[in-house]
Amino acid sequence: MFVASGLLRRKLWVVPYEKTQTIRVSRGPVQRALRLSSLLLDTAGAGALRSPEMHDLDESEAERMADRLYALFQAARARIRKPA
Fold first, then answer.
1. CA-CA distance, 2 to 33, in Å (whole number)?
2. Per-residue pLDDT reduced to its tens digit, 22-72
3. Could you tell me if 72 and 16 are in contact, meaning their C-beta atoms sit under 8 angstroms apart?
4. Strands (DSSP E) found in the chain
5. Is residue 14 within 8 Å of 1, Cβ to Cβ?
6. How many beta carbons lie within 10 A of that of residue 19, not counting itself?
7. For residues 76 and 19, what is the distance between their CA atoms, to the nearest angstrom?
8. Where are the domains of the chain?
9. Which residue, 2, 49, 70, 84, has most beta carbons within 10 Å?
10. What span, in angstroms and rounded, lies between the C-alpha atoms of 45 and 48?
11. How many CB atoms are closer than 10 A to CB 58?
């Protein structure tokens, strides 16, 4: 998963699917009124104030992305657990 943000100071996160710990879709009051959502990923190495986040996505797109990321996470973890 690649997440880039920032206009003047660019940040790029490259998160391997199997390293994801939390996939969260959140909506604030203004986002709910506008049918928007934020998709947040958490990993062990992410800081408390800096983590891969995508803000103001269409709410259905954010849900689809979260479902797809979770499916990719499960597939990656299954490959890791498979005996050699």
1. 28
2. 899 999 999 999 999 999 888 776 666 667 888 899 999 999 999 999 999
3. no
4. 2-5, 11-14, 20-26, 36-43, 53-58
5. yes
6. 15
7. 9
8. 2-81
9. 70
10. 10
11. 13
Structure tokens at 19: 């390293």
Cβ(43)–Cβ(15) below 8 Å:
yes
Rounded Cα gap, residues 56 and 37, in angstroms: 5
> Is this prediction's pTM over 0.90?
no
Dihedral sign (CA 78, 80, 81, 84): positive
Both structure tokens of 80: 């890791």
d(CA 55, CA 7): 14
Distance CA 34, CA 30 (A): 6
